[in-house]
Design brief:
mainly beta, Vitelline Membrane Outer Layer Protein I, subunit A, five-stranded antiparallel sheet, 1 helix, 2% helix
C-alpha cells in the first residue's frame, strides 16, 4: 500500500535552510503535470564529485527535479524501500568552490536506519544536520542553486495524521502526571 493511503496531509512544515543564499530559489511540492494529482516523494537524486553538484526529490511517478549543476559529478539515485522515509540530511556546507559557497559533503539517513553517502569528497566547511520530525512525511526539498552547485538546502514535510487518532495517544511521560485511581474519594 502506498504512503498516501495511510496519511492525510495536514500541517506543512520545513526545516531550517542551511547554506549561503546565492542562485535561484527552488521549492518542491509537486503535482503530476499530466493529471494534476499529488505525487509522493520516494527518494532523492544527487549529483556529486568533489562537492554536491545537484540534488532533487524522486517522486512515485518516476520523475525527479534536479537543482544545481545537472552535468557535474556522478549521478546517484536513492529510492527508499517501501515503508521507509527520509530521516535526516547532514554534512558540511559554506565551502568556497569556483567563487561559490556550496556543500562539500552530504549524507542521507532514513527512518529505517539506512545511510547513503557521503556525496562530495571535501571535508571543509561548517557542519549541519537537517531532521524531519518524528511522525512527519518527507515531501520535497527547497533552497537555492545555480549552474555550478547547490548553495542552500532545506527539507519540506507534512505532519502525519493517523486515520484513528485515538490509537496514537502517547503514554503519559511522568508517573506523577497519571490521573488518580477511580473509586471513592479519600477524606
Amino acid at each position: 500500500m502506498k504512503t498516501k493511503d495511510f496519511f492525510k496531509m495536514a500541517k506543512l512544515g520545513s526545516t531550517e535552510c542551511v547554506g549561503i543564499g546565492k542562485g535561484s530559489d527552488f521549492h518542491e511540492l509537486k503535482d503530476d503535470p499530466e493529471n494534476g494529482e499529488a505525487v509522493i516523494a520516494v527518494g532523492i537524486e544527487v549529483r556529486s564529485g568533489y562537492i554536491l553538484d545537484a540534488i532533487g526529490t524522486l517522486y512515485d511517478n518516476g520523475r525527479t527535479s534536479l537543482h544545481g549543476n545537472l552535468s557535474g559529478g556522478s549521478s546517484h539515485r536513492i529510492k527508499f524501500e517501501e515503508g521507509d522515509d527520509l530521516k535526516s540530511i547532514e554534512g558540511r556546507c559554506d565551502v568556497n568552490y569556483a567563487g561559490n559557497k556550496t556543500f562539500s559533503k552530504v549524507v542521507i539517513h532514513t527512518v529505517n536506519g539506512k545511510k547513503y553517502g557521503p556525496f562530495g569528497d571535501a571535508d571543509a566547511g561548517r557542519k549541519f544536520k537537517l531532521e524531519v520530525p518524528v511522525g512527519s512525511k518527507f515531501v520535497g526539498l527547497y533552497g537555492k542553486a545555480d549552474k555550478i552547485s547547490v548553495n542552500q538546502l532545506g527539507i519540506t514535510y507534512v505532519e502525519a495524521v493517523l486515520d484513528n487518532p485515538a490509537s496514537a495517544v502517547p503514554p503519559l511521560a511522568k508517573p506523577e502526571m497519571a490521573p488518580p485511581p477511580l473509586g471513592k474519594p479519600q477524606r
